[in-house]
Amino acid sequence: MQVLDALTRTARDLANGNIVPSLAETEVARQMQICNACRYCEGFCAVFPAMTRRLEFGKADIHFLANLCHDCGACLHACQYAPPHEFAINVPRAMARVRVQTYADYAWPSALGKLYQHNGLGISLVLVFFLAFFLFLAVLANGAPWKMSMGADFYDIFPHGILVLLFVPVFLFASLALAIGVRRFLRDITVATSGAPLTRPAAAQAADAVLRLKYLDGGHGAGCHDEDDAHTLARRRFHHCTFYGFLLCFAATSVATIYHYFLGLAAPYDWPSLPKILGVAGGFGLLIGTTGLCWLKLRRHPLHGDQAQKPMDQGFIALLFLVSASGFALWLCRGTQALPMVLCLHLAAVMALFATLPYGKFAHGVFRSAALLRYCVERRQPGRLDHCG
User: Fold this and answer.
1) What is the pLDDT of residues 293-335, one digit of tens each?
2) Are 74 and 220 in contact (CB under 8 A)?
3) Same domain, 33 and 155
4) DSSP character string of 302-326
5) Which of 37, 86, 219, 251 is deepest in the core (most CB within 10 A)?
6) Residue 389 within any structural domain of the chain
7) 125-155 pLDDT, tens per residue?
8) Range(s) of the domain holding residue 103
């Protein structure tokens, strides 16, 4: 039935003219044909074992392989056909260009997919500025913030109900948009990866790869390449700080929600309550991770990745950093007259982060996890080429 659905979609796309591969997809297919003949990098990461199971590379295959790539740089620095060779093989860059295209192609609503091309540092910061400005206007409408009593807390500025009305719709929309996008992506790559259903062993293996960021080890355990041929685990460690910092902050919010609605314990929570411990640990993780990733991006070799996507990367890193930094500032300013300004900045940063999640760099983690799931399923199936010849 899945094969029939795929054929139906292909026929519909052909009728609408949507099946024509882009230049980026054509370039990945060209490079994969050369890599499939060479196979020197076969042991580096998940991309190359998946590549060897294919003789041709259709649109879904290319989207699948592109989202398996972690841009560690190992294949680029090992390749005898890399620039300035006339073959000009640069797998990390070619894959990066297709990845951002997949986010746009599968975005929901489809019209917002173009935001991936423009969601840069400037737009992220401008969005934070205007949201903070309008929030501060709301504070001014209720009286001069500098006249607030020294013991005032953030619920005295924005009542809990108002915060719920502000953030829940944005969060639910972002979650729905991401879920629909990744469902569309999975629907297409499932047929391209044997069509076999997900199993517990495959899910466990994929979860292990995601949680350990396995494929940021360069395929040999020594780590990624940055500005030269030397290996370093710094990129993997900073990714871990950012990833787990975000999860801890989300856990802090979730625990605080349980405290408020089920235990009758209203915020703000004092140290050493569980929401505070989780939030502080997550905030430090985000500060360290985002600062390190920004530093590495400034130093990285120019042949790595797609330079055109730097603004999108920087915008996401800046929002995460601003959320964590303003969160700590909010804690330090509690009970002072600076609280309203800092609270408006923090709420604006969080809202901007939520609003851009489906259309920014955050999507790469979701799509990559989906690709790893299908990779772990496919590798347990008989190869397509086993009976060829």
Assistant:
1) 999 988 888 888 888 888 888 889 999 999 999 999 988 888 7
2) yes
3) no
4) TTSS-GGGHHHHHHHHHHHHHHHHH
5) 219
6) no
7) 899 999 999 998 888 877 655 555 555 677 7
8) 2-108
